[in-house]
Design brief:
The protein has about 100 residues and is mostly helical. Helix content is about 65%, strand content about 0%. The chain contains 4 helices and no strands. The chain has helices at about 5-20, 30-45, 65-85, 85-95. Helix 1 runs antiparallel to helix 2 (about 30-45), helix 1 crosses helix 3 (about 65-85) and helix 3 (about 65-85) crosses helix 4.
Amino acid sequence: MDRIKYEKRIVEKMIRLYCRKKEKNRELCSNCSQLLEYAHQRLDHCRYGQEKPSCRQCTTHCYKRDMREAVREVMRWAGPRMILYHPIDAIIHIFSK
């Protein structure tokens, strides 16, 4: 499986879940849309490519501080809820670490 595509898919599901359920938006709001675009852009330019570790385990922080905090907030909220809304992806994500 293409690691970058996989990471993009997971981060998109998390951001969409956060925006829809926590922020109560039907569509991605502008902040979440910008965050998703930024995350995809950073993944496209990841120096590790297909050998990429999970962002939490990476020694290179490629996100700007404010974006890193925003992604961290989204993942803290959406991560535990992924098992309810995207159970297969959640299980794969847990065991792929």
